[in-house]
Amino acid sequence: MAAYRSTLHQTTGYTPNYLMFARENKAPADLIFGIPNEDTPSSYDDYSVEMEERMKESYQVVRQHLGMTAERIKRRYDLRIRPQAFHKGQWVLYFNPRKHAGKQQKWQQKYTPHLIVEELPPVNYRIQRSRRARPFIAHVDKLRAWTAEDVPKSWLPNQPSEYDEH
After folding, report:
1. Which end of the chain is more exposed for a tag (fewer CB within 10 A), N or C?
2. Cα separations (Å) of 20 from 30, 35, 90, 108?
3. What is the DSSP track for 141-158?
4. Exposed, middle or buried by CB within 10 Å (0-12, 13-18, 19+), for 28?
5. Where does residue 60 fall: left (phi above 0), alpha (psi -120 to 50 degrees), or beta otherwise?
6. Structural element, H or E, at residue 117
7. Cβ proximity of 115 and 89 under 8 Å
């Protein structure tokens, strides 16, 4: 952990030790070779003022580094993303992984067919699972296009089945 905490992080530009204590912690090698240019404050007040200034300065630099890192990550994400557009009346699969106690999630159905009832630009859609179900709003990231030959049974009109006649 000491090695991790004393390693410079690319995102922040500082070590976790420096961000936590406003100084680098001394390592055994520092005791042997000494620390160059170590100025000791003359009083506790000077020390606290110096620490506060170092913390403010380092946190300002960290905010700038995090902003640049977030922009870089967004650019990389935007290169991979493919925009999707759906239309009213189109069938989609809605991603809704439900967890059931005692059941392996590996075998559970994660996508269910839904009908798009309304488009709510730019990235939301009102979808409905069946005729009787209440429509709800879903984000485009949770939807996939679904091309099926037949309509789901929940959307068929109530017709007597062949087994009811006997």
Report:
1. C
2. 19, 19, 53, 45
3. GGEEE---SS--GGGS--
4. exposed
5. alpha
6. strand 111-120
7. yes
Asked if residues 140 and 123 have their Cβ atoms less than 8 Å apart, the reply is yes
pLDDT, tens digit (0-9, with 9 covering 90-100), for 27-52:
777 778 776 666 677 788 888 888 88
Percent of the chain with pLDDT over 90: 33
**pTM to 2 decimals?**
0.52
Burial of 161 (0-12, 13-18, 19+ CB in 10 A): exposed
What are 79-109's pLDDT values in tens digits?
887 788 899 999 999 998 887 788 887 877 8
How is residue 25 annotated by DSSP? P
On the CB side of 57, how many CA atoms lie within 13 Å of its CA? Answer: 9
The whole-angstrom separation of Cα 1 and Cα 158 is 65
